[in-house]
Amino acid sequence: MKIEEEFQLELGTRILGSELHLFDRVESTSDTAQSLALGGAPEGTLVVAGEQSRGRGRSGRSWFSEPDSGLYLSLVLRPQIKPQLAPVLSLAAGVALHHAIQAVSGLVADIKWPNDILLSQKKCAGILLELHSDSDQIRHLILGIGINVNHRAFPPELDGHATSLLLETGRRFRRAEVLLALLDQLELVYQQFLVSGAGKIVEAWKKNSSFADGKKVSVVLGSKPIRGITVGVSARGALQVRLESGQTEEFISGDIVSLE
User: Helix 86-105 and helix 175-196: axis angle, to 10°?
Assistant: First the structure.
């Protein structure tokens, strides 16, 4: 089925998806959205692809984009906020994705800092937030999202670490249904963030993540992992970890690995 046929959408959102670009195949939805943003695309411009040949995740990793099985999309956002608040927007996207997956699937999801969605402790979805700004002003953000929807299997290197909605429930999902639920939740959380600030977003993230407090983790920054226990999230979206030395540090980047 051509993607234009599958994604004949009646959007309930006001901003997100106001300009829609559908592709059967692209190298990366985020690269496509970036080109559109640099060309003046308005806030809410949405790029959806049936397949990515060079999809990417956080820390430069590739994203496994099985054709016609996952939901691969990127949004152009132009929030009037300071660049320092962008990490909170990353948490907000994670909260929205968490709510959407639970609503569509009926499953209990977890959020791994900052915004990976876990089902049965395996990754089902992830977010890549790319910031384009001056020192004191955001020009635009590209919010890339990948969701494993109807994947039946994964490459050996992902086996045991990744899952899909189909694998967890035993049933197939309409990708358009997942997209509509996601856009509804994203717009709701995004507007809440713009109007009310970071506080409610951080609280919502902590409420829905087992990583917020009391989780034994390893923070991978560079070549040497740092071990500790999570003790919260700061107002700017940083993960707070009490190290084995007793000192508490805040991490705005890095890979988090659960030791439990």
Answer: 140
- Claim to verify: residue 168 and residue 247 sit in the same structural domain: no
Q: Is the dihedral of CA 188, 194, 196, 198 positive or negative?
A: positive
Give 228's contacts (C-beta < 8 A, 6+ positions apart).
Answer: 216, 217, 219, 241, 242, 243, 244, 249
Residues 86 and 140 placed together within one structural domain of the fold: yes
pTM > 0.85? yes
Vertex 69 angle, CA 190 and 76, to 5° = 30
**pLDDT tens profile 136-148:** 889 999 999 999 9
Cis upstream peptide for 114 (omega within 30°) = yes
CA distance 139 to 80: 9
- The owner of tokens 């970036």 is 34
